[in-house]
From TrEMBL:
The keyword Glycoprotein applies. One of its GO terms (molecular function) is signaling receptor binding. Coiled coil: none annotated. The keyword Signal applies. It comes from the Eukaryota. This is LFA3 protein. It comes from Cephalopterus ornatus (Amazonian umbrellabird). It is found in: Membrane. The gene is Cd58. One of its GO terms (cellular component) is membrane. Its main location: membrane. Transmembrane segments: none annotated. InterPro entries: CD2/SLAM_rcpt, Ig-like_dom_sf, Ig-like_fold. Keywords: Glycoprotein, Membrane, Signal.
């Protein structure tokens, strides 16, 4: 069976939980996971999995080949290979995992544009993040990097909070609207 390479590098964040995107439908007899050529986890049939090295005590290998690593560390970055045998065929998957430091808190800047207060949220994170704005006491969210509020509608007692998310990690900053007008 020809090896299947994942197209992209997969990213995890330090201290997150990461699961390799493996979906093997057929019953698997034997599974071996290697990291940089060293075996890190293996499973035979219905026997419980065995873990080696740094993954011992912080990973789970399921029957379908899924490997989950808890509390990611920078040292978990590397090339992972899954070899499996389903009693007829051998299968082979390869993944590259990069582990990034979590993003820092975003920065909020503001300007007046016409009759609107425009809040802008920026992140120094090296990958694209999702931006969300919330105003205190308002249940609605605004899903963009920029948030525009008509000046006539501003309640100076409120605060605006910008949230950035990447993977399972979220960071936020807030600004009091009174300091903007």
């Amino acid at each position: 069976v020809a090896p299947i390479y994942s197209e992209d590098v997969l990213f995890g964040i330090v201290e997150e939980t990461f699961t390799f995107p493996v979906e093997i439908k057929q019953r698997i007899e034997e599974i071996t996971w290697k990291k940089n050529k060293d075996i890190v986890a293996e499973r035979e049939g219905d026997k419980p999995p065995i873990y080696f090295s740094s993954l011992e005590g912080r990973s789970v290998l399921k029957e379908n080949g899924n490997l989950t690593i808890f509390n990611l560390e920078k040292s978990d970055a590397g090339t992972y290979e899954l070899h499996y045998w389903d009693s007829v065929n051998d299968g082979y998957l390869k993944f590259i995992l990069d582990v990034l430091d979590p993003p820092s808190e975003p920065e909020i800047s503001y300007s007046i544009r016409g009759d609107n207060l425009v809040l802008n949220c920026t992140s120094d994170f090296q990958k694209p993040v999702n931006y969300t704005w919330k105003l205190s006491d308002d249940l609605r969210s605004h899903w963009s990097q920029e948030f525009s509020i008509p000046i006539k509608n501003i309640d100076a007692t409120k605060k605006a909070t910008c949230f950035i998310t990447f993977s399972q990690t979220e960071k936020s900053s807030e600004i009091s609207l009174i300091q903007c007008i």
